[in-house]
Amino acid sequence: MNAATRIPVEWREWIAHNLARGCDARTMIADMLRAGFDTQTAQAALFELAGGNAAAPGTGYAHEASRLPAGNLIRLPDRDVRVVLRIERPTVAFLDNVLDAQECDELVRRSAQKLVRSTIVDRERGSAEVIAGRSSEGTWFPLEADAFIARLDRRIAALMNRPLENGEGLQILHYRTGGEYTPHYDYFPPGDAGSAPHLAQGGQRVASLILYLNDVEDGGATVFPRLNLAVGPKKGAAVYFEYCNSRGEVDPATLHGGALVLKGEKWIATKWMRQYRYEA
Ligand code: PD2
Ligand code: ZN
Q1: Engineering a disulfide at 23: which of 18, 103, 190, 204 sits with its beta carbon 3.0 to 4.6 angstroms away?
Q2: Phi, psi angles (nearest 5°) of residue 81
């Protein structure tokens, strides 16, 4: 039984009422201690009645439970993916064995001849702009473009636990030595004029999967500056993260970038999931 259901209904109503008025949690807990509750019950009841997901201080983002299944192994229809690392808030996971070596090589082979310089979305105009801080070249494959891509799209949708049709087409990116992608958000910043045309189709991006298609000789980690986390590229593995909740709020803690490739080259594939069905 959870803490909130162990306390009298009038206290549950009192907590809900005070939360709605924006009362300070510490003051409410002090009031509950004076009324005879123990600290653990008071804190737990407050947390649960706040939705178990109080916004991180200063962000206005209410964390929700991850869409990733629990356990060390995520059993997909055609593959078992190993969860090597998990962070709860924000949800970030390092996943191994998402692609096999042949699949990585095949994605590189199919992309190498059709790369074009990567762009970013201009925050005011929404247009695609080349910037020095994103020095990769890339290409993409429409959803279920052929049997090979369809197999990967389906596997990735199952892994990300979202409808296949909410996914954007698989993006392939190539960085040469010296290439990087400076820290950014994968979501479209709400309130930016440039986000509006992108949000109109499929809604907000909700989660990303960055798949590593080669082992990078040196550098090229995916970095999360606000989490002090760097994920080293490993062929066939992937980093997964979530940043948009069911209310459409976005989580700035997921700021991330692709660190400088110090030696060799780096190939990745990226899948972005949207709130709703997405048509390119
Ligand atoms: O190349 C990366 O590691 C990277 C880092 C951050 C790629 C992206 N973001 C992206 O494609 O959005
Ligand atoms: Zn990104």
Answers
A1: 18
A2: -105, 135
Going by C-alpha positions, the residue among 256, 137, 174, 165 that lies closest to residue 208 is 256
- pLDDT tens across 149-183, in order? 999 999 999 999 999 999 999 999 999 999 999 99
**Cβ(176)–Cβ(261) under 8 Å?**
yes
Q: Is 180 in the pocket of ligand 1 (CB under 6 A)?
A: no
Give the chain's length. Answer: 280
- Give the number of whichever ligand sits closest to the CA of residue 265: 1
Q: Is 118 in the pocket of ligand 1 (CB under 6 A)?
A: no
Q: Tokens 């090597």 identify what position?
A: 84
**3-class DSSP assignment, residue 214:** coil
Asked if 72 contacts 83 with a C-beta cutoff of 8 angstroms, the reply is: yes
Q: Distance between CA 166 and CA 272 in Å, rounded?
A: 9
- The CATH code of domain 73-274 reads 2.60.120.620
Domain ranges of the chain: 4-51, 73-274
For residue 7, pLDDT beyond 60? yes
Instruction: Give the phi and the psi of residue 111 in degrees, each rounded to 5.
Output: -100, -30
Pocket probe for ligand 1: among 268, 272, 273, the residue whose CB has the most ligand atoms within 8 Å is 268
Residue 139 in this model has a pLDDT that exceeds 60: yes
Residue 137 to residue 145: CA distance in whole angstroms: 20
Backbone φ and ψ for 173, nearest 5 degrees, come out as -125, 145
